[in-house]
Amino acid sequence: MPRKGLRLRASAPNCVKIVLVTPAPPGSVSGNRVTAQRWARLLTDLGHSVEVTEQWSGAECDVLVALHARKSFASIERYRRERPDAPLVLALTGTDLYADLRVSAEARSSLEMATRIVTLQPLAAEAAPPSSRAKIRAIVQSARSPSSLGEPDRLGFPVCVLAHLRSVKDPLRAAEAVRSLPDTSSIRVSHAGAPLEQALRVSACAEEERNPRYRWVGELPHAEAQRLLAGSRLLVVSSRSEGGANVVSEAIVAGVPVLSSRVDGSVGVLGADYPGYFEVGDTAGLRELLLRTESDAAFYEVLRRRLEALKPLVDPARERRNWEELLSELWATARR
Description:
single chain; 336 residues; alpha/beta; Rossmann fold; 6-stranded parallel β-sheet; 12 helices
């Protein structure tokens, strides 16, 4: 239980001890590890003490925050067994929402044991069991726009893909869409992402050989990936499913229009009526959108203005406020 007299506020003299569990090990480039590190920085900035670990080993803490319902089940189950009334926050990943909850009893049990459940966009609640939805709080990931990123290349039409080579990301969809564009098009695709699946690494290398409009630059440091994004006219997100991609938030802040597969992880942030969607796996649909965006300045401006209107949604102050409100809820619940 939290220490007597503890207030969950950044200005309080006492801080909250938070253990943040992620199944991704240190040095991993997976979204789970990136999200854990982002939240650790945010919560530390709020004045709390945060430890990021792969599993809860019984260490003293006021709150356990666990990413991934199935992979963190052992930590969640132990924490709840040893501390039946202590605050426990479960953060649902895309794998949880669109795969594991359908087949894993452990994943569903994690939801039942959680005090609160965090999702990265509001539509994710629809994939959770109805019995768990009252616990869910959507906290959209924020992004900052670094200074001195430069401007997009106005002479050509550079497009970027920021996605690791994983099947769920469908990372070569944009490459396939630009294979046979007309000679009048100046679209070129630059793809940054780590080769997490060997077969896709081979495919990306082969694609570069036969497709002059595509290049795979491998994994980039975050700052370089942001420069690639800022120097592009479009970002393509072609995932088969997403819990809520932070790269969409970064595109919003950078003012780079997004063309995305119609998955909840994007729709929950961009809105159901955003005009830049194509269906999952629809190469022809993406190709048509790419050509329209390149050739139709009015359509491009519609996309740009829609993203401009979404900037308050991904403001870091909003994300901090959402976490403060969540921690306050936990404290109020613990005192009852």
